[in-house]
Amino acid sequence: MNEWDQDNLSFLLNSSPETLADWYEKMDKSDIDYAFKLLAIAKTELDVKEMYINDDITDTNEAAAVIAKIQSKLT
Questions:
Q1: CA-CA to 74 of 20 to 30 Å: which in 8, 25, 29, 33?
Q2: Are 23 and 46 in contact (CB under 8 A)?
């Protein structure tokens, strides 16, 4: 994720419900799709970080499947 994406993600995560509602009303479908992709990427990054926090995890097949599913939706 580049700096532009990170700034947009920050907006999505930190805006008030009113600000998001106003933004949503002004955006077209491609903008909303982009926002959902950013949120999906951020979720995947958090899921991967969580895996590294828990040293007891030895089977990463489930995480790999989640990442593959998200990546397939981004293309």
A1: 25
A2: no
Q: Is 4 helix (H, G, I), strand (E, B) or coil?
A: helix
State how many domains the chain has.
Answer: 1
* Assigned token pair, 75: 């293309």
In angstroms, what is the C-alpha Rg of the chain?
A: 15
Helical H segments across 1-60, by residue range:
3-14, 17-26, 29-53
- Residues 34, 2: contact at Cβ < 8 Å? no
Q: Which domain holds residue 50?
A: 3-74
Residue with tokens 């030895």: 58
Is the pTM for the entire model greater than 0.90? no
Residues 6 or more apart whose Cβ sits within 8 Å of residue 24? 32
Residue-wise pLDDT tens digits, 15-43: 999 999 999 999 999 999 999 999 999 99
Q: What is the DSSP letter of 2?
A: -
